[in-house]
């Protein structure tokens, strides 16, 4: 039976999830692109439904997982943005709930509420481009952490060894799914593999192999699809080792000095994650020394028949200064086997604790705390040590890997920081940190830290308000209008070609595929974007001598599209060969005017 406080925590988490739904409410009803990358996702879904393949029939940089998801979730034709956006919002809320379950597993019920609230204060703002790649990758990444926490718990019981290995395998599958949705999100494999392979005081090769097997297993369906079409090499070259992506990373890296990159990383992290960063730093500073760094999590409960120790001795003992435990861990003994002295209590205390919490390794109570442990005289809660062996090392490794992923390309967009949010919030919610009531009773915490936390909370809440207002405004009215106009004037077999990232959605709204494999031009027809989280992009330059410019001209000549739409920001005058082709075979269609967009109709239509 759940304790009353567990029921209260579950209700609080449900309320937090409900508030997150309210913030995302426009995404359930708006039905328009909030991110133009979603136009690319739905285009690839349309291509798959038409029998084509990403990386083969379209040059693509992104991971293929979202393309396959869209074929199922974006309506019968794979291009229904409204249905896809509703599914994305449900996935985002599910990520919040699974994250709360992970926090509960690691730190307990109270910490789960704090972690969930902290996460919900930031995730919708960081993921303001809803239905984007990061939205879909976040759920399996957090689920990988939850599976790893369960597997690490069950590993401590010999009777549950096989269950632990199966759960490590499932954690690896979740890591693979995260990578399939967004390649940088696959870095969650690093901390999970570290946790599986290197538990405190020993090595577990079988668990590490299970994680790697699960990671590969997640890729098996996509690999088999490409293999059946004889295009496995295209998948490896487009997804695993994409030269376009590596060129993008190399170009941005070489153009930024290391000191400037380091400054941009720190500034962006503080700007987007100030509150969880402050609380995580506070928790790490307040972390008890001695037992906590060694991840000693399983402390045998006192026997009801044990004799009571003198009160004076009870008051003087602190579990964080037990030499036997340190020696056991240093000698390579698993932390869970270290025998630690426990302050004596009344004979009824252990039984009451067992009734309230249940066994730590219970497979049915994901919030079960560890067996009874002692509290030091400093006022830290008994839960100061992690509930699962290796927790702190896992969280620190996860945060480091996620920060490295956020630095990909050195642009530091806010969506990149969504992957850093889970480990940071878990560190912030550690039992000896912000969730410890004893610490908040101290004067300097109340008068120095509390105002800072309050100010940062108000700032995060205000950002959420702005995000909700932004989600209520469609960002693709032009693409909707152009797509509808072209769709009415073409047949299902007609092709089109568009130039401009803000026009990618025209494919989905018109239901027409691209006449060229070069349906995206960034980094192919034009230079890669150089804008960052706080600086605008410079003027793009056309790579007229590059291979993709020649590929585009060849594709258009071989299968002339019915319509060509060129965005107002596209450097069209720098591509004279394309201009000549349009003048020779097309006429300007002035029947529709949308900003500075040029629409060209094939002359024989």
TrEMBL record:
This is Glycosyltransferase family 39 protein. It is found in: Cell membrane. Keywords: Cell membrane, Glycosyltransferase, Membrane, Transferase, Transmembrane, Transmembrane helix. Residues 354-364 have a biased composition (Basic and acidic residues). The lineage of its organism: Bacteria, Pseudomonadati, Myxococcota, Polyangia, Nannocystales. Residues 293-318, 347-385 are annotated as: Disordered. It comes from the Bacteria. PANTHER family: MANNOSYLTRANSFERASE YKCB-RELATED, MEMBRANE PROTEIN. Pfam families: PMT_2. Its main location: membrane. It is a multi-pass membrane protein. Residues 64-222 form the Glycosyltransferase RgtA/B/C/D-like domain. The chain crosses the membrane at residues 7-25, 133-153, 168-197, 209-228, 265-286, 392-410, 416-435, 447-464. One of its GO terms (molecular function) is glycosyltransferase activity. Residues 300-310, 373-385 have a biased composition (Low complexity). Its EC number is 2.4.-.-.
């Amino acid at each position: 039976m759940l304790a009353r406080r567990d029921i209260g925590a579950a209700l609080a988490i449900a309320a937090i999830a409900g508030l997150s739904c309210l913030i995302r409410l426009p995404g359930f009803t708006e039905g328009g692109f909030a991110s133009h990358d979603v136009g690319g996702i739905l285009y690839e879904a349309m291509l798959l439904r038409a029998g084509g393949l990403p990386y083969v029939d379209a040059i693509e940089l992104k991971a293929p997982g979202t393309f396959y998801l869209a074929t199922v979730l974006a309506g019968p034709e794979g291009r229904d943005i409204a249905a896809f956006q509703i599914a994305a919002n449900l996935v985002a809320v599910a990520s919040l709930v699974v994250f709360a379950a992970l926090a509960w597993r690691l730190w307990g019920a109270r910490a789960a509420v704090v972690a969930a609230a902290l996460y919900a204060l930031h995730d919708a703002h960081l993921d303001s481009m809803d239905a984007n790649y990061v939205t879909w990758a976040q759920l399996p990444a957090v689920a990988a952490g939850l599976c790893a926490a369960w597997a690490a718990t069950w590993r401590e019981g010999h009777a549950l060894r096989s269950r632990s290995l199966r759960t490590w395998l499932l954690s690896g599958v979740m890591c693979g799914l995260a990578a399939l949705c967004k390649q940088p999100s696959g870095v969650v494999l690093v901390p999970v593999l570290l946790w599986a392979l290197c538990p405190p005081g020993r090595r577990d090769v079988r668990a590490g192999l299970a994680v790697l097997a699960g990671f590969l297993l997640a890729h098996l369906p996509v690999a088999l699809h490409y293999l059946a079409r004889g295009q496995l090499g295209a998948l490896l070259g487009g997804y695993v080792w994409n030269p376009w992506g590596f060129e993008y990373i190399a170009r941005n890296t070489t153009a930024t000095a290391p000191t400037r990159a380091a400054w941009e990383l720190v500034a962006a992290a503080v700007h987007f994650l100030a509150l969880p960063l402050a609380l995580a730093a506070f928790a790490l500073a307040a972390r008890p020394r001695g037992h906590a760094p060694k991840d000693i999590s399983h402390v045998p409960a006192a026997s009801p028949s044990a004799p009571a120790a003198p009160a004076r001795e009870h008051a003087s003992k602190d579990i964080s200064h037990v030499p036997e435990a340190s020696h056991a861990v240093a000698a390579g003994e698993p932390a869970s086997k270290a025998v630690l002295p426990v302050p004596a209590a009344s004979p009824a205390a252990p039984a009451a604790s067992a009734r309230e919490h249940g066994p730590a390794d219970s497979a049915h109570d994901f919030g079960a705390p560890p067996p009874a442990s002692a509290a030091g005289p400093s006022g830290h809660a008994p839960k100061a040590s992690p509930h699962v062996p290796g927790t702190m090392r896992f969280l620190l490794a996860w945060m480091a890997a996620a920060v490295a992923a956020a630095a990909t390309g050195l642009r530091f967009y806010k969506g990149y920081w969504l992957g850093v949010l889970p480990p940071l919030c878990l560190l912030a919610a550690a039992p000896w940190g912000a969730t410890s009531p004893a610490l908040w009773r101290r004067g300097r915490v109340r008068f120095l830290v509390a105002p800072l936390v309050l100010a940062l909370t108000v700032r995060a809440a205000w950002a959420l308000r702005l995000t909700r207002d932004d989600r209520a405004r469609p960002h693709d009215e032009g693409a909707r209008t152009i797509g509808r106009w072209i769709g009415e004037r073409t047949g299902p077999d007609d092709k089109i070609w568009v130039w401009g990232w803000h026009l990618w959605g025209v494919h989905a709204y018109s239901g027409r595929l691209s006449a060229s494999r070069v349906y995206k031009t960034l980094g192919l027809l034009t230079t890669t974007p150089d804008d960052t989280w706080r600086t605008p992009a410079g003027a793009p330059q056309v790579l007229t001598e590059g291979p993709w410019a020649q590929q585009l001209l060849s594709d258009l000549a071989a299968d002339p599209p019915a319509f060509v739409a060129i965005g107002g920001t596209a450097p069209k005058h720098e591509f004279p060969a394309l201009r000549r082709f349009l003048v020779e075979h097309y006429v300007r269609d002035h029947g529709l005017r949308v900003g500075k967009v040029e629409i060209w109709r094939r002359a024989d239509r």
